[in-house]
Design a protein that fits this description.
By secondary structure, the chain is an alpha+beta fold. Helix content is 36%, strand content 13%.
Length: 281
């Protein structure tokens, strides 16, 4: 699809009240401009502050989504549309929640457990769209992400079926904290030290700073997210993988950062396992 076609679709969606933004190849958002590279409009990292982006360029992913025809057609956005591989939208900004089903098993589970609603086919699965908003959570089940507030989804067409109110069964999924998924036979075992599992050469503050920096490195990736995630996992495991100080919470934070950039739980798991194998763990 050409830049003109992407913009035409974006303007049509904006006219229906759906905030839109350009997505680059790999369905990720456009990278932040030089002025915004290390910050977000609300003054907090990782694009977690609700509300629109104040930068005139399409920065900060979902926060850049707009319904303004003038902004969408403006000069600062023109280059982004020329680079765009798809049109994205902010479900929460349109009063919607998207249940992103990433593979056939996830679709089968939804058909058995969730009320039917508007359905849109994707490359590997389906988007189920409900009326109503909630917090966005990735990996609530294997292959299932919830995209609503502070999130974006790729526009894949109108779909079929009648959109239904957001059910409690979907809201309940967000209240379940999933375990970090690991493939059968590929579980990473991190040996613990005899001294109570404390890292002998790093302080807890050092570990926390390292995890925060790793999250930021993944979040700041403008391209090659999968490779960035792998290199980051490798660095974290290299520093702390044999010390017994890494917890599931730390790993979950890294996976969450990668999933926010478009990586699936499966991709995160594979990258983590490969990094561990590279280090002989």
């Amino acid at each position: 699809m050409s830049a003109t076609a992407h913009l035409r679709t974006a303007l049509w969606l904006a006219g229906t009240g759906v905030p839109v933004l350009p997505l680059r190849a790999g369905k990720g958002p456009m990278g932040n401009c030089a002025s915004c590279r290390d910050t977000s409009c609300g003054g907090r990292p990782n694009m977690q502050t609700p509300g629109p982006c104040t930068c005139p360029r399409p920065c900060h992913a979902w926060a850049a989504a707009t319904t303004s025809p003038g902004v969408l057609s403006s000069a600062p956005w023109a280059g982004a549309w020329r680079q765009a591989a798809a049109v994205g939208y902010h479900p929460g900004g349109a009063g919607l929640t998207v249940v992103d089903l990433d593979h056939a098993d996830a679709v089968a589970w939804a058909r058995e457990n969730l009320p039917a609603t508007r359905t849109v086919a994707t490359t590997r699965g389906e988007h189920w769209i409900y009326l109503g908003t909630m917090r966005s959570v990735n990996g609530v089940r294997d292959g299932i992400d919830l995209k609503s507030t502070a999130s974006y989804a790729r526009w894949r067409g109108v779909g079929t079926g009648t959109m239904q109110p957001l059910p409690d069964t979907v809201r309940a999924l967000a209240d379940k904290t999933p375990a970090v998924a690991r493939p059968a036979g590929g579980t990473v075992t991190v040996p613990r030290l005899a001294g109570g599992g404390k890292c002998p050469h790093r302080s807890p503050v050092y570990l926390e700073r390292g995890i925060a920096m790793a999250e930021q490195r993944i979040t700041a990736a403008a391209s090659g997210v999968h490779a960035t995630a792998y290199r980051t996992f490798l660095a974290v495991l290299s520093a702390h993988g044999r010390c017994g100080c890494l917890t599931e919470a730390h790993i979950g934070r890294l996976f969450t950062a990668a999933q926010a950039k478009g990586e699936s739980v499966r991709h995160c798991t594979t990258a983590w396992s490969n990094a561990a194998a590279a280090l002989g763990m």
